[in-house]
UniProtKB/TrEMBL annotation:
It comes from the Bacteria. It is a multi-pass membrane protein. This is EamA family transporter. Residues 13-147, 162-293 form the EamA domain.
Amino acid sequence: MIQPPEISRRDWIMVVALGVIWGATFLVIEIALEGITPFWLATARVVFATALVGLIWQVRGGALFAERPTPATVGLTLVIGVLSTALPFLLISWGQQFVTSGFTGVSMASVALMVLPLAHFMVPGEQLSWRKVAGFVIGFAGVVILIGGQAFESSASANETFGRLAVLGAAGCYAISSVLLRKLPTVDSTGLTAITLAIGTPIALICALLVEGPPPAVDSRTFLALALLGMVPTAGAFLLRVMVVRSAGPTFMSLTNYQVPLWSVLFGWLVLNEPLPPSLLWALILILLGVALSQYGAFKRLFTQSDT
C-alpha cells in the first residue's frame, strides 16, 4: 500500500496563505500602477525580490547545481530566467493598465492548462490522456471567453484586447518555463530562484530605460506597494511554496491553482470595486473545471490510498 502524504493543519494553513498572497498580487499591482509606469514597476519588483532571495541563498551556502553544469544547462537556465521573471513581469505590469486585477488572476489559472500540451511534446512520460484533453478543451473555452470582446466591460480603452493578450502571454511564459524546469538537473531551489531573478533584473531594467526613460519619482504609498510586491508574493511566497512542497508534496501545492483566481476576483471586487460580469465568472468556472478534470488522477492519489 502506498500511503498518501500526511496533510497537517499547518499544511492547509500554508497553502491557503499562498493562495491569498498570490491572489492579492494583482490587486497590489493595480495600486502600484497609480504611481509608477509599468516597466519600472516590473523592474522594482524583480530588484526587491532578487535582493531578498539572493541574501537568503547566500546565508544557506550559495549552492546551485549538484554537479558542474554543462553549457546546455547554463543556456536553459538563462531561458528559464527570462520566461519566469523578466518577460511575464513586464507583460503583466503593462497589461494591467487595460484590464482589471480579477481578469489577471483568472488568466493565471490557465497556466496549468497550457502546461498540458507543452509537457506532452517536451517531457517523456507526460502524454495527454482523454481526461487531460477534455480538461484542456473545457479550460481553453474559458480562455477564449476571457479574450472575447465582451470579456471585461470595465475598460473603455482601445488597448484592452492587447492588455488581455499581454496577460495571457505572461501565463504562457510561466507555462513554458515550468516545463523547461523539468529538464534541469538536480538543483537547489532557492539558488535557482535567486539566479533566475538575477537574470531577469538587467533585462527588465534595460526595457524600462529604453521604453520609459529614467525612473520616475514615487510617493511613499507606491514605494510600499513595490517593496511588498518584491518581498511578499515574489520572494516570501517562494519560501512558503518550498515548505509546502517538502511537507505535503507538489500535488497538494497545486491546490493554489484553484485559489488564486478566486481570491484575485474577490479582492478586486471588494477593494477596487471591480465589476463581476457574467463572462468573467463563466471563464473562471470553465478554467477551474478544466484544471480539476486534468488533475483528477493526481488529486485522487493524494487524498485516497492506492495499491502498489
